[in-house]
Amino acid sequence: MTTSPSSTTSTTSTTDSAALVPGLVIRPLAGPEELDLFLRLSYSLDHEVADDLATGRRVPGWMWVALDGDRLLGRLSWWTNAAGGAPQVLDFLDLAPELSEAERAEVGLRLLETASAAVVPAGTQPPEFGRFMPADWRERPETRSLLESVFGVLVAAGARPLVERLRLEWRPGTPVPEPKGRLKFRPVRDREDLVALMTPVMEGTLDAHGQADLASGLSAREAAEQHYDEELARYASPREWWRVAQLPETGEPVGFVVPARNNYHHTIAYVGVLPAHRGHGYIDDVLAEGTRVLAAVDVPRIRAATDLGNVPMAAAFARAGYVTFERAVNYVWDTPGVAGS
Fold it and tell me: Which of 95, 176, 188, 235 is most exposed, with minimal Cβ within 10 Å?
């Protein structure tokens, strides 16, 4: 990513003939008391920000604004899953809808570059960008225009699109299929029990993040361990919910499912069928078991996600009664500190 000098404010000189917004000031929030300023623009995660600040998943120094006088022209924020952690994802990048396309491009790039120079350590790979979007965002002209402005800023800063994902939801009252008896289920015993099953699932995965892990040089085992340690192990919900699917006759593992609760929602955090057992429709049985586990504890909803290109998994969620309520997109920087990489 291209970075500008590591300052906390940036004001374009009024003598700069190329500047479309000559009075632009870019700075982090002074503290939680400026949350109302940050919330002058709108995004679907706004309702979570106050609690994120209170719990340390965000800090004011990661929350930046672009101002022209009292007008909020842009904002961004990084997030981490636990207090004291490094920024894990850039999940806010918003630009004022009244700006022209050219103004959005200028404000957005200068906001991203200035904030990144102060927050992302020099020479390190920036955290990926993640954004939730309406399922029909391409059919909404104003929404599409704003999102494409944001995506253009990311590309100008050296990022590339990684994947578009379906965000899915199971709602109470949706029928859950009864067990077919083809598989039996047991709780996951320990870390090694699950990682040993995750490893072959990583091989030939259709998941873009998994493919990126393997392309980075990680082995399937290393990628599975990283996924477990950085995500699954952090869930505070009961490990007793996690299930391994086995053939009743032999006890041979077929797949697994990880029902959990993250910081915000109950979720199917991971579901997979081992390569040797694919093609028999077992994914429906395994997903149904994970859904039954959470439905039995009377959750208000169950969230899940899968890549747009992972057609078999998307079809399995649809058969299980999950509906697409949003989409998501991820952009990544492949090379630390290099624009256009």
Answer: 176
Cα–Cα distance, 317 to 304 (Å, whole number)? 9
Burial 50-81 (b: 16+ CB within 10 A, else e): eebbeeebbbbbbbbbbbbeeebbbbbbbbbe
pTM across the whole model: 0.86
> Can you list the residues of the chain whose pLDDT is less than 50?
1-8, 10-17, 337-341
Three-class DSSP category at 212: helix
H/E run at residue 65: strand 63-68
d(CA 77, CA 91): 6
The per-residue pLDDT for range 114-132, each reduced to its tens digit, is 999 999 999 999 999 999 9
pLDDT at 9 (0 to 100): 52
Output the furthest CA–CA distance in the chain (Å, rounded).
Answer: 79
What contacts 29, CB < 8 A, 6 or more positions away?
Answer: 35, 37, 38, 60, 61, 63, 64, 65
The DSSP element (H or E) to which 229 belongs, if any, is helix 220-230
Distance CA 213, CA 219 (A): 8
